[in-house]
Write a structure and sequence with these properties.
The chain is an alpha/beta fold and 284 residues long. The protein has helices at 7-13, 60-66, 101-118, 144-153, 164-168, 186-198, 211-214, 237-260, 274-283, and strands at residues 32-48, 70-78, 82-86, 123-129, 132-139, 175-180, 202-209, 222-224, 232-234, 264-269. Helix 1 (7-13) runs parallel beside helix 9 (274-283).
Length: 284
């Protein structure tokens, strides 16, 4: 797969930035606020010179005027590597006609990767599948977003692969973006994500919902769980209203529980312009 199908989307998100929610510890220069203070042009404050300070940080003009030695402390900027973790379970293939949740999730991930890569941040990918994992280590090389698109294009959502084990292994990236419908191992995934937040990682949860989940198609007689086909429930005029209420409550509880972990949580609906969804994610 090339980036050609995403040309208009990538044009729409060009110029967007995705700032880190916390100071990063990287040493390589970038666009995110760093925990380090050094010799950046952006002056933060002055401090009296202490033994061991770098003489290059001395303000020689101030020393000449006051006969006192001060060092200039400046805000450093650093890069932030980003790893995208996508849900490739069978439920992401819904609906089977038109744009599926998987198709939409891929577009969101590619656009977000382009935004991050646009300011020099390394980006990577990991997708657990029933036949193994599709993995691209974070890198800032030219063409990395195209590599991600190619890898995602070879994945077919099926089965019930879990996300939580991937997060529990301890991803090295400073920012982790999880794109999922959260209909699988959601609780275990959330617990693993909370541990990453506690380690100082920047975690974003992107919840993908199909319009047909919000408003089931009229006349559908039986609803089948794509990951557990043996689970079948009738969808009639009498049960439709109750379903909508329960689904709305579940979404509300889901968002609240994720935000309590310290992660951001953004709900995106298939059919919403992808660029608009991406803007909401980076603004979260």
């Amino acid at each position: 797969m090339t980036l050609a199908p995403y040309g208009a989307l990538l044009d729409a998100v060009r110029g967007l930035t995705w700032p880190s929610r916390r100071r990063v510890s990287g040493a390589l220069p970038g666009t995110h606020d760093s925990r380090r203070r050094g010799m950046s042009p952006e002056l933060s404050e002055y401090r009296v010179y202490r033994q061991g300070d770098d003489p290059r940080q001395l303000d020689w003009k101030l020393l000449a005027r006051t006969d006192r030695a001060f060092v200039r402390l400046a805000e450093e900027r650093s890069i932030l590597s980003t790893m995208f973790v996508l849900d490739a379970s069978a439920s992401m293939a819904f609906p089977s006609h038109g744009t599926s949740k998987w198709d939409y999730a891929v577009g969101v991930a590619i656009a977000l990767a382009a935004v991050a890569r646009g300011v020099g941040d390394p980006v990577g990918l990991i997708v657990p599948t029933i036949s193994g994992e599709a993995v691209i280590a974070p890198h800032a090389r030219r063409g990395i977003v195209r590599e991600m698109a190619r890898a995602l294009g070879s994945v077919t959502p099926r089965g019930s692969p879990e996300i939580a084990p991937v997060l529990r292994r301890g991803l090295r990236a400073g920012r982790i973006a999880i794109v999922s419908d959260f209909l699988g191992d959601q609780q275990a995934t959330r617990v693993a994500a909370q541990a990453l937040v506690a380690q100082g990682r920047d975690v974003h949860a992107v919840h993908v919902i199909a319009e047909e989940e919000l408003e089931p198609v009229q006349g559908a007689a039986m609803v089948v769980d794509p990951e557990q086909p043996s689970l079948r429930r009738p969808m009639t005029a009498a049960t439709r209203s109750g379903y909508r209420d329960r689904f709305a409550q579940w979404r509300e509880d889901l968002g609240r529980s994720w935000r309590l972990t310290g992660a951001t949580f953004t709900e995106v609906i298939v059919g919403e312009p992808t660029a608009r969804a991406v803007v909401r994610v980076v603004a979260a």
